[in-house]
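User: Hey, my collaborator sent me this sequence without any context and asked if I could get a structure. I don't really work with proteins. Can you help?
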Amino acid sequence: QVQLVESGGGLVQPGGSLRLSCAASGFRFSVTAMSWYRQAPGKERELVATIRGSGFGTNYADSVKGRFTISRDNYKNTVYLQMDSLKPEDTATYYCKATLVREYWGQGTQVTVSS
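Assistant: No problem. I've predicted the 3D structure and written it out in structure-token form, which is a compact way to encode the shape of the chain:
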């Protein structure tokens, strides 16, 4: 069955960096578009970034452009989110999503940006 397991979250100071990973299994990862979303307390889940199966084609939310980079390793069935210049408003639970016939979500990883 489809499984998505996020990791890499934690506590970081403003201006710091984190790299999130999402290990995927149970489907043809290399042809599947993958996305990162985030949800802060009391707010709706929002799209952060998307990458096409080939890796050539990415989209970012305006709020993270120039600071976050989505990438994938189709040999390791893993999608990454490199987050630089982190701000307190980036604090949220981050989820990865696989878009197949239906959507599949991971369990999320918490990112807290605070001094």
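In plain terms: The chain has a mean pLDDT of 96. You can pass these tokens on to your collaborator as they are.
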